[in-house]
Structures are given as C-alpha cells and as structure tokens.
Design brief:
Strand content: 25-35%
Number of domains: 1
Radius of gyration: 20 Å
Bound molecules: uridine 5'-triphosphate
Number of helices: 11
C-alpha cells in the first residue's frame, strides 16, 4: 500500500500559545531556525510522500507563501555572491512544482472536520495525516517508521503512532487499548477512546499526531457528530472505522515534542538546538549561565 499523499491540518486557532498566534499561524512558529511546518514537510518527504495537502484557514496565507519560490530573495542572494549556503537551504526546503495543494477549512470545527476538508484532493487511496505542532526528533522520522510498519501489514489497514504517557495524565489524551502484539514495536489496536475519565483508560498509550488512514474515514467524518470540546474529533471517526477495518499501533523511536504548548515549544527549541552540531556548545554555555544565575 503505497502512501503518496499527506494531509497537514493547519487551520486551528492555536489558542494555547496566544498572543504569538494572534496574527501569525502557529505552524509558522520557529524551532531553532525553521518553522514547524517545514519540519513536518521534511519528515513527510523523507517518508516518500509525493503530494502535500495543507488544510488552511483565515490568516494562514503565509504558509502558502513559505512553500513558494521567492524570486526577489533568490535574485538578491545570488547578486551578493557570498550567500551560497543560504541559496542551497532555500532550494533544499522547496517542494517540487505542483506537489502541493491548499484547501480551506472555513471554520475551525475540529481536527476531524479539517481532515474531511481534504477528501476530494486525497481521493480514494490511503493517506497520511501529520499534525505540525507535534515534532518527533529522530532519524528516520516518525512517519517513515509508520510507513515501514504499514508496508509489513496487509491492505486496508490503518496505522497510528502511539507514545506512553504517565497514568495520571491519560484523561488529557486519545488513548488506545493494546491487543495482539506483532513483535517489534507494533500491536493490534483494541479500542480507542478520546480523553477517558480518570481511572478508565485501557492503557497509557496515547494517540499522537501521525496517522495512516484508509479513505473510508471520509464517509464516516461526513456525518461525525461533535465530540470532546464541541469539536468534530478524528479519534471518534477512527473508532467508527475500527468497526470494519483493522488499526495497528506503532511505538515509534524518538522524542515527541508538543510545540503547541508554551513549555513544549521551549523544550523543543532546546532539544533541536542541542541536536545541532553548529549550535550545541554555544547553547550549552548559555543554559549553564542561566542555570547558575
Ligand atoms: P490543535 O488542537 O493542537 O490546534 O490541533 P489548535 O486548535 O490550533 O490549538 P489550541 O488547542 O487552540 O492551542 C492540531 C492541528 O490541527 C489543526 C491545527 O491547526 C493544528 O495544526 N486544526 C485543529 C485544524 O486544522 N482545524 C481545527 O478545527 C482544529
């Protein structure tokens, strides 16, 4: 099952990191020197994705600009003569011509609704969903690990990336039950529940922001009622799909960062900064300075 398309829902309001997101999309917040959306684009491209579908909303136009070619910038950098590295970075980060699509979610009704907005562009084939505010620091990336796992399974399966969370925090997440283990880091999902009341979670494995889904999810999303938080939840539609199709969980390698929260955003900057050979020593010295203050 070749996964060619990835959907990036980017139409949310990013209320947890206001006021940063008042006029700027959360997905353009910068970790070290790249916007979040570029990290997840790179992760998807590394995983073999060929078509990148962005579900945008009001105030998100700059995301489309980010993936466009900036002639003025290219020309100015070339004229300066000493900006070869910068020119290479811009070329490297650029999607191939025609490899992106942008559609709109006209109101932020929830993640499930945002994914549904991509139905016509995805069409009748399995696809990935990648949430840009969750970054996983690892090579190979989280989506590449999931696609590798999916390739070992049969047709018509769905794959979710899961991560262990403390038992007293399960009520804040979508949680899945664990069925038969397939060996390695994979297991059959035995039920999913969005934000289970304290003490009722079937496991402490949370559903994270990477999914491989079959296109039948769209007809379920079409009539999906609002769920937790008054939003149309993707997890609720996946629970519906699990009645007729299998779901597998992948406990991926790598550290996940929730960049949509202030603490997670700061932590991600430190983690990604420390992973950079050109920045590590300077950053370590700066942190030491502030810790000793
Ligand atoms: P989040 O719930 O993390 O984003 O959704 P949010 O709603 O923007 O943020 P908070 O909770 O108010 O701080 C994960 C991803 O799904 C997108 C968001 O843009 C984010 O990238 N999303 C969410 C949509 O595209 N549409 C929605 O209706 C909700």
């Amino acid at each position: 099952m070749k996964i060619r398309k990835a959907v990036f829902p980017v139409a949310g309001l990013g209320t947890r990191v206001l006021p940063a997101t008042k006029a700027m999309p959360k997905e353009m917040l910068t970790i070290v020197d790249k916007p979040l959306i570029q990290y997840v684009f790179d992760e998807a491209r590394e995983a073999g994705i060929e078509h990148f579908i962005f579900v945008t909303g009001r105030n998100k136009g700059v995301i489309e600009d980010h993936f466009d070619r900036m002639f003025e910038l290219d020309t100015t950098l070339a004229a300066r003569g000493n900006k070869k590295a910068e020119i290479e970075i811009l070329a490297r980060d650029q999607p191939a011509a025609g490899a992106t699509s942008f559609t709109r979610q006209q109101a932020p009704l929830g993640l499930g609704h945002a994914v549904w907005c991509a139905r016509d562009i995805v069409g009748n084939e399995p696809f990935a969903v990648v949430l840009p505010d969750e970054l996983v620091l690892n090579t190979p990336g989280c989506l590449a690990q999931m696609i590798e796992a999916a390739n070992k399974l049969g047709e018509k399966t769905n794959v979710i990336a899961v991560e262990e969370v403390p038992a007293d925090m399960t009520h804040q997440y979508g949680i899945c039950g664990v069925g038969k283990r397939l060996g390695g880091n994979m297991f059959e999902v035995d039920g999913m529940v969005e934000k289970p009341p304290k003490g009722t979670a079937p496991s402490n494995l949370s559903i994270t922001g990477r999914y491989i889904l079959q296109p039948e999810i769209f007809s379920i999303l079409e009539t999906q009622e609002r769920g937790a938080g008054g939003e149309i939840q993707l997890t609720d539609a996946m629970i519906g799909l699990a009645r007729t199709q299998s779901f597998y969980g992948v406990e991926f390698e790598g550290e996940r960062h929730d960049c949509g929260s202030k603490a997670g955003f700061l932590r991600a900057n430190i983690a990604f900064g420390m992973a950079r050979a050109d920045l590590r020593d300077g950053l370590r010295a700066e942190m030491k300075h502030y810790l000793e203050k």
